[in-house]
Amino acid sequence: MRSKNILSWNNSLPTTLYSPSSPHSSPRPSGSGTMGGDASLGAPGSLPRRSDHPVGQRIKGIYTDRLRQFTSEGQYSGQNLVSKYFEAVNSDEDHVKLSVYSPPDLSRPTFEEATSHEFKPTHIGASFGPSWSTHWFRIRLTIPEDMLDKERLEFHWDANNEGMVWNEDGHPLQGLSGGGERIEWVIPDAWRDGKEHVFFIEMACNGMFGNPPGDDQIQPPRPNKYYTLHKAQITAVNLEARALYYDFWIIGDAAREFPGDSWESHQANVVANAMMDAFIAGNGSQESIKQARKIGQGYLGDKVDSADVYKAGTDNAIVLGIGQCHIDTCWLWPWAETKRKVARSWSNQCDLMDRYPEHRFACSQAQQFKWLEKYYPSVFDRVKRWVKKGHFHPIGGSWVEHDTNLPSGESLVRQFLYGQRFFESRFGQRHTTFWLPDTFGYSTQIPQICRLAGMSRFFTQKLSWNNINNFPHTTFKWVALDGSQVMCHMPPSETYTASAHFGDVKRSVTQHKSMDQDNTSLLVFGKGDGGGGPTFEHLEKLRRCRGLSDKTGLLPKVTMGGSVDDFFDNLEKKAATGTEFATWYGELYFELHRGTYTTQANNKRSNRQSEFLLREIEYLATLASLKGGYKYPKERIDDMWEGVLLCQFHDCLPGSCIEMCYDDSGELYAEIMETGQHIRKEALQALGFATKNTGKGFVALNTMPWPRSEIVPMPGASTATHGSKYVLASGETGVITGQPMSGSELPGVTVSEIRPGVFRLANERLRVEVQDGVITSLYDVEADREVIAEGGKAGQFVVFDDKPLYWQAWDVEVYHLESRKELKSSKTVIAENDPHRVSVVTETKISDVSWVKTTISLASAVRGEATYVEFDTEVEWRENMKFLKVEFPVDITNTEASYETQYGIIRRPTHYNTTWDMAKFEVCCHKWADLSENGYGVSILNDSKYGFATCGNLMRLSLLRAPKAPDAHADMGRHRIRYAILPHIGALDSRTVRAGYNFNHPLVLQPSSGTEVMHAFKSIALTGSPALILDAVKRGEDDEDVSRGELPKRPGQSIILRVYESLGGRARGTIHSKLPVKKVWKCNVLEDDEEELRLFTAGGNSGVNIELRAFEIATFRLQL
Ligand SMILES: [Zn+2]
What we know:
metal ion binding; glycosidase; 20 helices; Jelly Rolls; alpha+beta; binds zinc ion; 6-stranded antiparallel beta sheet; about 30% strand; 7-stranded beta/alpha barrel; carbohydrate binding
């Protein structure tokens, strides 16, 4: 009866005697007189005088290793607990009748479509495919006589792929993920009637991670994968044996993972061995299983079979468990599959909530909710019921879990505007936590944008993947460029898809880096990406972890039933009452996945173009809508934005998806462009613009909030006067007429071959020398200085070998820099020699299959405008794991370079002093990067690129990569890329900021109608500091003539203006309007009025003075 001894030993374990916190723990004072004194003075000892048998020291390692025997599938599985899991199984054709319908052409039909077809008999062992195909199974189930009174009946289905269980009425019940992961569906008790019952399983021929060819999950998917149905059976589960399995697992983990010098580890070892011994002594009988569980209670307590285990005081429960199912909106599968993953995963969670009252599940991404609402209304209703009960927690406030490096500022704002409005309209709530566990680095203005979108908390985890420096905080305040802050938490278990292991709970303390301030943490558990979120197993294990903490100790206490909001509420309360949390200023740079600034160039170009197009059409549509006779096309603009926001998902825009996803996004971007062009045309028509040539000359449209003067080509083959194909378009915001120029009005530009093979392009301000396709000299006439570093070659193409450690599409690794290879160009020739624009062209061979053709141009210098040398580059790119970049060595000295980021500028080192500096060997920029010293600087503009590096005085724009996984054809083909080198006298200032906008949106001449409504463009203007950028003009979301009714309408018309301070200092300005403005409000980005501003009127115009702090983003609502 050894086990009994153990049990009693355990129960009588004198924890108080040895506990360091016990008042009895100090040794007795020596010399008390009883030690070794006269025996007759004390009670006789109970220890027998003679030893009756020898007892050895237990060899801990052996007794620990032995524990595996009990639950392993190996040679002992017929003897151990594994053999007791199921009381009976049945898959014979009398009880499980299978038939199947296989839709053609990889289609994904609805339940109604699918079940209207004929189903053909099939059987276990049959195989189904190819990859991405769908198969609908009808299952006719009859519970066998001998299973009718079993405690728990489950249907087990496993074909190593994903599936969804549907009832006969066409309601999805729960998902299955295959491969032994989630294969069970609990059969309703009502089916124990001896009759036949019908249900369906929709099989998707893909696993959780798509269709990788082998174990390497990021390799491009295999198109012809087949899946064998190897399990379809009724199973009577021995719930007691299942429970013992989890008891034993957690105690075994305690034996293995608690510190070897802790008594808790020794005790776990002793208890677990005793449990095995009890099972063996009882020959694996049901009684012995119960006996083993009873022994386990000595370590786990007696409450682990229900949620009651969490009732024993939450005072010092410092780890809050929250379920999650991180579903990448597209990645190794297309959007169409994500829609099904969402329905499968979330219905699983609703199902678990029925059985586990402590379970809480946090779920982000408005887009996924919107899909569910549309395609799975009954699951959406089920979700809504659980949201109402407070168990299912929509979270995050954004449209998708988007990338934050690449989208524009306005895109980031819209992620929250569209996200928060969706959640508010469907669930009556906005979110306070921005939830972004997996995105690849976090841009510096996120805290400010969060605060403006009603959020004060930020959750992520990805920085634990840094492969150079260990991020120093778990819980801290993250501070934006303007000083705005959010409370940030990164779970110390370092995962957002924890399996709720003992180790995850333990690491919540051992890896917590902010213990000086607060010891609490989130444990975010559940299988991601179609794994369906938490399983019953996770919940069972956590109950045992908690039981262990209460009964035995040492493991931090997990609590359940709370929310992420509760967790952050507590942190904010502490911050408010004096706890000084550490701060982190500026971007949360991710030291990995640096290739994602460049991979999938077409997608990134489309993102940039869509953002500019949306900016323009919202502005034009706003002006047109105020004129009458034109309806603001809110629905189409919403569709465009939702498309752009979807494509900014954290695998899509960064370039880490499979090829299928880029087919999808390419199609969506094409729709966005088409819709946008229609809207633009309609709005321009409403504003009196011509649709075709009218013979009334040409006009350009300046939609930038500042005057512009540009040399623009005449449309078609028209030639302006003075022998030039170009005219000068110059004017304020609005309609600009093109002015033909004579040499006296505007000094021209020349090109000549000054020495064999050396060309000089010169205008009034710059002299450029080009030899063999590169700029060997760029001389600033006015500043009287050379811009190119001595011996340097600007515009030099370089190719690097690009083989990261693993994540091909994601990563470029630091060692790629050592493989730098200059590309040699062929001869340069003059391509254009117009009085107002000249250019030379050069072809450069990259390899036998790839080449670059670059046109370097210089236009006449226009007074008051930045002058730059433009590169228009066409690339045929067919490389294999290579990285193409272009270099600009400049004669500038600074230890920091500046990069445009959303609503501001971020400075990063140009050196590798520390590992933190060196980690930034490749960084993200938006429309420009700049290296300046006192008095002078150089900006590099681009029209579609995001990757950059400045190393010393060498500026390097990243152009194209060639990863072969997960998209084998990423970036293969033809590309056109524009960039420019813009030298400037004085510091980095608004010239560069404006040039970035202008360069991305050149003025274009179009036929004039002669009736353009010029004054419309004067109706709104911003004057004052050139640091203030009027970045967006749109109509109010809830204006009664605009609203789509998802939230309460607001009377009247209003105009929303988004203004930001772009250079990093306090700036004043005035908003002017010729419209009948009644009131002006400063708003948040959700367009809630926050502060009414003083409106003044002068000369029939109204105005309001504004003042922004450094890098502030401000939204103003003009109520008409
Ligand atoms: Zn992800």
